[in-house]
Amino acid sequence: MRSFDLTPLYRSTVGFDRLFSLLDQATGVEAGVPGYPPYNIERTGENAYRITMAVAGFGENDLSIEARENTLTVKGEKTAEEGKNGEVLYRGIAGRSFERRFQLADHVEVKGASLENGLLHVDLVREIPEAAKPRKIAIANGNTPAAQIEAQAA
């Protein structure tokens, strides 16, 4: 894959840091293994979403979820295995640490998370505040006082 150096753009622009970090992520400049762990993003309602990650072998104590500004970060770090008898001849279940980041749109909030059958479900909802929702503006007719003042001045 071809790598692009965005350094000259960083020097000549102000306020586009988020755009450049998105470009870096799109070009694959992400720490760790880019495809691990696999995940799905699905729409569960008009303003509801769910991220499902395959985290086989990780327990609730091994996972952490953090939402900061418009970024959701899911980290997994396996603690030392205790009480294992015997030696492992083949390890096909990945137990390596990971960190996966998701860029969230404005007004998207994490509503909850659950772990079942090796799948981590993170539920999201977009809640647009009343001030940002479109509103209908009434159009006044020519009989209003402001319209009469403007008509007399002309």
From TrEMBL:
Q: Which InterPro entries match?
A: A-crystallin/Hsp20_dom, ACD_IbpA/B, HSP20-like_chaperone
Tell me the keywords, alphabetical order: Stress response
Q: What family is this?
A: Belongs to the small heat shock protein (HSP20) family.
Organism of provenance: Kaistia hirudinis
Which residue intervals define the domain SHSP in the entry? 30-142
- Name the Gene3D superfamilies for this protein: 2.60.40.790
Name of the featured protein? Molecular chaperone IbpA
Q: Which residues cross the membrane?
A: none
